[in-house]
Amino acid sequence: MLEFRDIDISDKEWITSLLRKSDFMGCEYSFANNMAWRRLSESKITRFQDFYISCAFGTEDGIPTFTFPAGSGDYKALFNELKGFAESVNKPLRICGVTKKGLDIIDSFFKGEFTAQLDRDNSDYIYSSEKLINLSGKKYHQKRNHLARLNDYKWEYHDISDNDFDDCISFSTLNYNYKKGENSQSSIAEQYAINTYFNYFHELGLKGGIIKINDKKGLIKLTNKNEIKLFQNEQIRTKWDSEIEDYYFSVIDVIAVLTESKNPNRYWSDLKIKLKDESGEPYEDIVKLKMPASDGKMRLTDVANSKQLLRIIQSVPSPKAEPFKQWLAQLGKERLDEIADPEQAIERAINTYRMKGYSEEWITQRLKSIEIRKDLTSEWNRSGVKSGEEYGILTDEVSKAWSGLTTGEYKYHKNLRKESLRDNMTNTELVLNMLAEVSTTAISRNENPKGLNESKSVAKRGGDVAGNARKDLEKQLGKKVISKHNYNNPELLDE
User: Is 43 exposed, middle or buried (0-12, 13-18, 19+ CB in 10 A)?
Assistant: First the structure.
């Protein structure tokens, strides 16, 4: 009986050799596509004799659907095996990607036992290279218009390099797939495919190019979704203030979006003088907050809350003013809805992780780790530990005790900078870290330490509980569990 499993990069050599034997032209007969798109229909693979078999198990009607096997050998034995598997799960045998030659092969063994029909939705696109180059005729009028509009911008093209990968993943996530629908399975599968292509770019032997528009790349870095908001694909730096239940917005970013000024800082400087001369508002009430600058550093910048920002917008002549006001209102509503119903925020977080390529098992562990961390910080707060620096000191104590590394050393080990350490932990690391924090919380509640010094001892002992578990596990496995794996390959975090 056939036994199916997930495809892996280690399968590339033997699968590619069998694909070449058949030389089928469909998009299904590409190792890179098979590996990248496996989440769309829960595809799994197996080998029978000298045939490569791929089957989609996540079809809408629940019928496993085989791609016409690639390779060579005894077709009669092959199709009897496929038929036997279908019968074992009480489903009819269904095969896609069948050419005229494939139909003839099937007909020779199952004459009169099957039906064939064209599935237009799954047909490949075939283009004439000559027509796409020339774009002549009425049929290509729209494409010519697209190109004409592109020339209105300052753009450049270059071959894609490793330095572009993160930007491309971020752009596709935030500007395309996340917007199509947070709960769209097709969007999640598409983003997973994109991540896979870039994570295994060289191993898959891929090539590509990138277009940069207006020196911005048209690309953005993934950051905390509460720090960067998008208005019409433009970045607006924000910070939520729980006391006033409102966002603070970077004024410079808003000015840049509304005016498209080449020097928004100068525009804002002139506008401040105008606003002060008019009424003394709202600039006198505007504060400065540290926000991530273009160089990656946190720098002070003028910020305004929604009410203040509306006053500024009134003084900025822009066709985008009204859409921006509507965007402000919707943004505030979404945030307040999340406060009133935390499940909405949780669901957003889940779908963001899905878009990034994390598995469902890993996401479950990560959400649990957030809950456990909140319990621990609440306990520290009760014990008189000050948030910020003192939390950081205790976190290092816990981390050092269970992993042998401070959080800084741990991030260095995983080649991280400002990225979240927990977002880059494997399942095993997350579980051990949770054990350390749960133990610390339990000991603290039992002993009631006061202040930082007493809590440090508790933190170390709580971490030691997980540290001993780690050492026992490593002894059983014969290898270290503190991994170098990080988000660059989300699949590897499932260990």
Answer: buried
pLDDT at 273 (0 to 100): 79
- CATH 3.40.630.30 placement within the chain: 9-122, 141-213
The CATH H-level (homologous superfamily) assignment of domain 141-213 is: Gcn5-related N-acetyltransferase (GNAT) (3.40.630.30)
Integer angstrom CA distances of residue 11 from 19, 39, 224, 359? 12, 17, 36, 21
User: How many whole angstroms separate alpha carbon 270 and alpha carbon 267?
Assistant: 5
- Alpha carbon distance 271, 315 (integer Å): 8
C-alpha closest to that of 482 among 402, 367, 373, 420: 402
Please report, for residues 64, 315, 318, 331, the alpha-carbon distance to residue 321 in angstroms, rounded to integers and kept in the order given.
Answer: 52, 10, 5, 15
Give the angle subtended at the CA of 229 by the CAs of 223 and 231, to the nearest 5°: 140
Please, are residues 225 and 219 in contact by the beta-carbon 8 Å criterion? no
Helices (H) and strands (E) in the chain, counts: 19, 11
Q: How far apart are the first and last CA of the chain?
A: 28
396, amino acid identity: D
Looking only at the bridges linking them, the beta strands covering 94-96 and 155-159 are: unpaired
pLDDT digits (tens, 9 = 90+) for 27-83: 889 999 999 998 888 899 999 999 999 999 988 889 999 999 999 999 999 999 999
CB-neighbour burial class of residue 47 (10 A; exposed 0-12, middle 13-18, buried 19+): middle
Q: What gap in Å lies between CA 352 and CA 106, rounded to an integer?
A: 44
Fold of 9-122: Aminopeptidase (3.40.630)
Calculated CA dihedral for residues 145, 148, 154, 160, nearest 10 degrees? 70
Asked whether 421 and 459 are in contact (CB, 8 A), the reply is: no
CA atoms of 404 and 407, how far apart (whole Å): 10
Single-letter amino acid, residue 1: M
Q: What tokens were used for 406?
A: 């401070």
What the block records as the tokens of 165 is: 């990968």
pLDDT digits (tens, 9 = 90+) for 105-134: 888 888 878 888 888 777 777 878 888 888
321-375 confidence digits (pLDDT tens): 788 877 777 666 665 555 455 555 666 677 777 777 788 888 888 888 888 998 8
DSSP 385: P
Q: pTM of the prediction?
A: 0.52
Assign residue 233 a region: left if phi > 0, alpha if psi is -120 to 50, beta otherwise? left
DSSP string, 3-60: --B---GGGHHHHHHHHHHHT--STTS-HHHHHHTTTTTTEEEEEETTEEEEEE---T
Identify whether the C-beta of residue 267 lies closer than 8 Å to the C-beta of residue 259. Answer: yes
258 contacts: CB under 8 Å, gap ≥ 6: 313, 316, 318, 320, 321, 324
